[in-house]
Each structure stands twice: as C-alpha cells, then as structure tokens.
Amino acid sequence: MTSSKRDAKESKKIIRTFAAASFLNDMGSDMIYPIWPLFVTQILKANMTALGFLDGLGDALVSISKAVSGYFSDRMRRRKIFIWIGYLFGALSRIGYALSSVWTHLIPFRVLDRSGKIRGAPRDAYIADISVQKNRGKSFGYIRAMDHLGAVCGIILCIVFFKLLGYKMLFFLAAVPTFISVALIILFIKEKKPEKIKLYKGISIKDLDRNYKLFLLLSSIFSLGTFSYSFLLIYGHKHGFNTTFIPVLYLIFSAAAFLLSIPMGRLADRIGRRPVLFLSFFLWASVLVFLISGESRLTVILSFILYGAHKGALEPVQTAFVCELAPEKFRASGLGGFQMMTGLCTLPASFIAGILWESIGMTAPFYFSLVLTATAGVLLLFVKT
After folding, report:
1. Residue 267 contacts by C-beta under 8 Å, 6 or more apart in sequence?
2. Which residue did the predictor score with more confidence, 251 or 312?
3. Cα gap 42→38, rounded to integer Å
4. What's the helix, strand, coil split of the chain in %, to 5?
C-alpha cells in the first residue's frame, strides 16, 4: 500500500471516529432539546424573555469557547485534548439540568454545557487538515449528517421515553451517550504530539484577508437574526401542537438536515461554496415567510422541513468555506474567531427575539430576521472565491 493510500485510509478512520462521537453526543443532546423550552417555561416557570436569555447565553458561550480553544489549539499544535474535554463538559451539564429546581439554577450548567463546544474549532481544523479542497465539503457534510442522524435517534428516544421517565430522568439518561463519546476520542484518536512543548505564534488581524473579514461580517449580520430553535417550537405549540408532539416537529427538522447535509456538501464541492450559501439563506427566508403568512399545522410542518434543509445547506458549507478563507496554519483560530463572532450575535438575537415576541407579537422576530437575511445575501455577492 502506498503512503498516499495509507494516509487516505487513516483519514477516513479518523473522520469515522469523529462522526461516531458526534452521533452519540447529538443523540444525548437531542433527547433534551425538543423538551428544553417546555421544561424551562412550564416546569421551572421562566417567561419567554428568560428563555431567550438562556438560549442566547448558551450560544454566546459556544462562540467564545470555540475562539479560545481554536487559538490555543493552533498555538499548542494540539487538537485532541480540547475535543474529549468538550464532550465531558456536555455530559456533566445534563446531570446538572436534572438536579435544577428553578430556572436560575440552569445558568451555571448552561455555561458548562455550551463551554463544551471547545471541541468544535479544533475538531473542524483537524478534519480540514486531513482533507483536500475537492472532498472537504463532503467530509464536513458527513460529520453534520451524523450530527443530525444522532439528533433523529435522540428525538425518537425522547418521544418513546418522555412519558415513562419524565423530564429529569430523561436528562440523566441523555448524559450516557456523551460519556461514550469521551471514551471514543481518548481511545481511538492518535494525535501526533509536537516535538517540543511550547506556544507557537498566534493569529493576528493582518493574517486575515478581505474575503474572510467580509464573510465574517455578513455571517454575523445573518446570525443576529437567527434566533434559537426554541421560538419555532413554542410557535408550533401555540398553533395547535400538543406537548407530546413538539419533539416530532424537532424530529422533522433533524431528519431533513440529516438527509441534505452530505448532498449539500458534495454540491458545494462541485459548484462552489457561495451558490450553496445563497441557497441556505433563501431556505431560511422561506421559513420566515411561511411562519408569517400561515398559521395552519401544515404550514408549521413545512416550516420545520425547510428549516432542516437550511441547516443542511448552511452548516457544512459554511465551515468548509471558512477553512479555505482562513490561513492554513491558523485554521483552528480562523474557525474559532468566526464561530465566536457569529455566536456572540446569537445572544442579542434570541434576546431581541424574546422582547419582540413579548412586546409586539410572535411574528415580529420573523420580520426582523428577514431584513437581516436579505442584507447578508447582498454582502455575499462581494465575497470572492
């Protein structure tokens, strides 16, 4: 076997391990996500503004943790340690959720949970390092597909066990798959250690070109309008879907995202990143139009299908695009910085959405998001590939 074939075989093995760990973690996460907004608002008695704060805080912490881990991953030339510790944080936070009795108790565990995303930028940089441009979209599409397949399985488990176990026991159960993810990374990812333990040069603004900066700006604007999925689930609940059916809506979204992540990644490898990103913006705008214009159950279901299609188009292609716009030796930093800026925008996004929902009406956040989506789409025209 030639060296290149051995490298390709090893790369596939690493990606499969990451995919398995991601599948298990998302299975645990999505045993919780469909019932999270109802747990916070109905069991712990928080209002929509508090829910928006919790979700926005979580998303903001995701972005900060990715930036910090990306920066130090590049400086230390290490990836693995950030990945397994991130999974460990996620598992422990679910135990904390189960022990909470009022919504303010959730804050430290939400911090721990979302800080677990320190795994994101180092893992994505690892995947980018062992991929090439012609298959990078496919590689990220595969990882995201396994994320969403894990979500599908987690939602099914939620639907099956929710009535039997209730909220808190389900949270305990959700920690188990993520503990297995920790073991997979520790046992099966063999990272080459740097020759010397030292900090290498970190990234600076001058290392980033105009296209990266413009893409960061437009993605931040877009993120400012992409409020938490919790608002869509509450919207569905207020339009006739009972509590036991809410996880099914999330299942519909996850199934659509799973089915489209790999095809969208492959499409981006063939025709380029920008056209698929335009498509993702269009799909999100379609979700908003459906929610504004119609209030039937069918409209809500179609909105969740389109939402899943949007995620399937956006996530793998956006990650691959950022990897290629960032300097090669600073990929984790470039990814982490990008994820920090766009993620920080989700804190005001969900918080603003909650205020608009409470003060003006439930469709007000959708109009706000439409304007920002159109703005981001226009700016994307000026990013050169």
Report:
1. 137, 276
2. 312
3. 5
4. 85, 0, 15
The per-residue pLDDT for 133 is 72
pLDDT tens for residues 261-319?
A: 889 988 988 998 899 999 999 999 999 998 888 777 888 889 899 999 999 999 888 98
**Which pLDDT score is estimated for 311?**
92
Q: What's the gap between Cα 139 and its chain centre? A: 16
- What is residue 162's predicted lDDT score, i.e. its pLDDT? 86
CB-neighbour burial class of residue 180 (10 A; exposed 0-12, middle 13-18, buried 19+) = middle
- Judging by beta carbons within 10 Å of its beta carbon (0-12, 13-18, 19+), is residue 43 exposed, middle or buried? middle
Please state, in angstroms and rounded to a whole number, the distance separating the CA atoms of residues 94 and 32: 9
Instruction: State the CB neighbour count (10 A cutoff) for residue 66.
Output: 30
Count how many domains the chain has: 1
Give the domain CATH number at 117. Answer: 1.20.1250.20
| Cβ atoms of 54 and 167 closer than 8 Å | no
Length of the chain: 385
pTM of the model: 0.73
Question: Which 3 state secondary structure label does DSSP give 344?
Answer: helix
Say how far apart CA 345 and CA 198 lie, in whole Å.
33
**Percent with pLDDT over 90 in the chain:** 29
- For residue 233, which of 114, 57, 105, 362 has the smallest C-alpha distance? 362
pLDDT of residue 59: 64
Output the 3-class SS for 100-113.
CCCHHHHHHHHHHH
φ, ψ of residue 147 to 5 degrees: the values are -55, -50
Sign of CA dihedral 272, 277, 278, 283: positive
Q: By the 8 A CB rule, do 280 and 316 touch? A: no
End-to-end CA distance of the chain: 36
Residue 200 lies inside a defined structural domain of this protein = no
Query: For residue 308, what are the domain limits?
Result: 3-190+206-380
Cα–Cα distance between 49 and 37 in angstroms, integer?
A: 12
pLDDT in tens, 204-246: 566 677 888 999 999 999 999 888 777 888 888 787 777 777 7
